[in-house]
Every structure is written in structure tokens, then in C-alpha cells.
Design a protein that fits this description.
The protein has 330 residues and is an alpha/beta fold. It has a domain of 217 residues: 3-Layer(aba) Sandwich (Rossmann fold), CATH 3.40.50. The chain has 11 helices and 13 strands. The longest helix is centred in the N-terminal third of the chain and has 22 residues. The radius of gyration is 19 Å and the shape is globular. The mean pLDDT is 95.
Length: 330
């Protein structure tokens, strides 16, 4: 268990960052959080602001001084701050690069100067690009299919060079389609699961890109929190200065995904069971199928995810139903 450490979480007001905050604050850690609220939400951290164990800094990883302030005296960094989304990077590659590459380098450089013990960062399954093999294994990658994928691969290259050159311990976690509580269902770049959920809660037909047989290894947030904790506490020297897939190790199609979400939300409103999806064009830059091998993470750092997609969706659907004011953003 990760306990009694001083840790920095960047992107702390975001979906994954706020879930890490919630977990680690309960375990008697002292936490510094950094966020500029470009995609994160104040309400995600609001319950924790009164805690003596949490200090929030509103700042930007593109600003070196903000990074220096945040990193001071920290043992471990969980770097989640980034501009996600393949479509966003296609529309605005320059900003995606500024945040995801320059911001990453700022934080990594400051971490090295401050003597931070371990730097754990959000990598991405998009790094696999056009490599055809399934399941995805960490050492076999193809050419990136989007500016976003380029930025996340560059993160891995910088982390590798910094670990070899300066001795800082780095661990990259290639997230596969994470979902769960506090994931934003609104805005142009919302992920597929919360988009489906909000459409169904509104009594509307969601749009499935393509024929719906595109498949993904959807990963419940609690699995991701577990992976970050294992990365922080592992004492296996073979486990550091590596990248790992973080997933459940099963893939399901978008059509099956829709049916599962419909089943769980239908328990709250039977009219949801009658809604049929619309089908639209495929999304530019998307891969057809994705499935992770989680063997390396299991073997080297004891990653053992407990939530398959069905169990995760059951939890997530209840959270969305209980927490989303459906009409407030319509």
C-alpha cells in the first residue's frame, strides 16, 4: 500500500487524477495537486480541499515555475496532465504538442533536478498505431496514426532517456480506454462510454462510429488506480524504467458495449431499453481493434485488475445515474 509519502498528482482535477487523489489521500499520504482546469473540473477536487493532507496549485505544466513550485519536496509524481483525445489533436496539433510534450519535459526536468525518486506517467494505447498484432505487447509498436499518438510516444522516449542519463526512475502506463466515475460526458471530445450514457439518460439515440464492430479493451478506473499504486510501491528493479499496458485484457465491440450500458441504465428507466443507436462514419485516426496483453505488468509489478468491463459498467452506470444532472448541459 502507498502510504506516508509526499506525492504530486498533475491533472488532479481531471477524471483519472481525481480518482488517484481520492485513493491516496485515504492512505495517509500528503498530496500536492496541479491543474489549470483546461479540461479538469473544480468539483472533482472540491471535497478534498478542506483536508490538511492536500495542497492545490492552480498552474500549468507549460510554465516551468509552476512545475518547480509543485515538485518541491515530492517523493513520487503521478503525471496525468495532458490534452487527451485523438480528434482534438487532429484539430489542434500545436496545443496538444505544447502540453503533452513540452509540458511533460518541463515536469520531468524539474523532477530530475529535485531528486524525485519515481516519476509515473500516463502513456497511451494509441502508441501502438498501425501495428496489426493482437493482443498488444509493449515492445511491438507501429507508426502513430494521430498527433496525439506522436506526443504520447515522445513521452516514452524522453522518460527512457532521462532514466538512462540521469538515473530517475520512470514508469509509463499505457492506458486502454479508461472509464468510470468523474469522467466528463460533455463537450466535443467526450469518450464513448459517457457519451452513450448521457444520450440514453436523455432518452436520445447515441451515435456509434462505423458499423459498431470496432472493439476496445475498456478499462475500469479502479484497475487504473491499482496500476498506479503498484507502479509506485514496486521494489522490483526490473519493473522500473519500463512501460506497461493498463487494461483488463478483454475486448468488446461498440455494439456489445451499447447493449451492456443499455441493460444497466434500463434498471433505472425501462424506456432506455427501447432506444436504438444511430450509426455514423468511422472516426479519422481510429484503429479498428484494440486488445492488451497485461502479462508484463502482472509479472513485473503485480498488476492484477479486479474489474472486467461488465462489473465496471455496473458501477459506472450507477454513478452516472446518481450524479449527473441530465438536463443541465442540454
Amino acid at each position: 500500500m502507498l502510504t506516508k509519502k509526499k506525492i504530486l498528482i498533475t491533472g488532479v482535477a481531471g477524471f483519472i487524477g481525481s480518482n488517484l487523489l481520492e485513493k491516496f489521500i485515504e492512505q495517509d499520504n500528503t498530496i500536492v495537486g496541479l491543474d489549470n482546469f483546461s479540461t479538469g473540473k473544480p468539483e472533482n477536487i472540491e471535497p478534498f480541499l478542506k483536508s490538511d493532507h492536500f495542497t492545490f496549485i492552480e498552474g500549468d505544466i507549460r510554465n516551468l515555475e509552476d512545475c518547480k513550485k509543485a515538485v518541491e519536496g515530492v517523493d513520487i509524481i503521478f503525471h496525468q496532465a495532458a490534452l487527451g483525445s485523438v480528434p482534438r489533436s487532429i484539430n489542434d496539433p500545436i496545443t496538444s504538442n505544447a502540453v503533452n510534450v513540452s509540458g511533460f519535459l518541463n515536469l520531468l526536468s524539474v523532477a530530475k533536478d529535485e531528486g524525485v525518486k519515481r516519476f509515473i506517467y500516463a502513456a497511451s494505447s494509441s502508441t501502438y498505431g498501425d501495428h496489426p498484432d493482437l493482443p498488444k505487447e509493449e515492445d511491438k509498436i507501429g507508426k502513430p496514426l494521430s498527433p496525439y499518438a506522436v506526443t504520447k510516444y515522445v513521452n516514452e522516449l524522453y522518460a527512457d532517456v532521462f532514466s538512462k542519463t540521469y538515473g530517475i526512475e520512470t514508469i509509463g502506463l499505457r492506458y486502454f480506454n479508461v472509464f468510470g466515475k468523474r469522467q466528463d460526458p460533455f463537450g466535443a471530445y467526450a469518450a464513448v462510454i459517457p457519451k452513450f450514457v448521457i444520450s440514453l439518460l436523455n432518452g436520445e439515440s447515441p451515435t456509434i462510429n462505423g458499423d459498431g464492430e470496432t472493439s476496445r479493451d475498456f478499462t475500469y478506473i479502479d484497475n487504473v488506480v491499482h496500476a498506479n499504486e503498484q507502479a509506485a510501491i514496486t521494489e522490483n528493479q526490473e519493473a522500473v524504467n519500463q512501460v506497461y499496458n493498463v487494461a483488463y485484457g478483454e475486448r468488446i465491440s461498440l455494439n456489445t458495449l451499447f447493449a451492456l450500458i443499455q441493460e444497466f441504465l434500463g434498471e433505472f428507466d425501462e424506456n432506455i431499453q427501447k432506444i436504438q443507436p444511430n450509426y455514423g462514419p468511422e472516426r479519422t485516426g481510429d484503429v479498428r481493434h484494440s486488445l492488451a496483453s497485461i502479462e508484463k505488468a502482472n509479472k513485473l509489478m503485480g498488476y492484477n485488475p479486479q474489474f472486467n468491463v461488465r462489473k465496471g459498467l455496473e458501477n459506472a452506470s450507477k454513478w452516472y445515474h446518481d450524479n449527473l444532472n441530465i438536463k443541465s448541459h442540454s
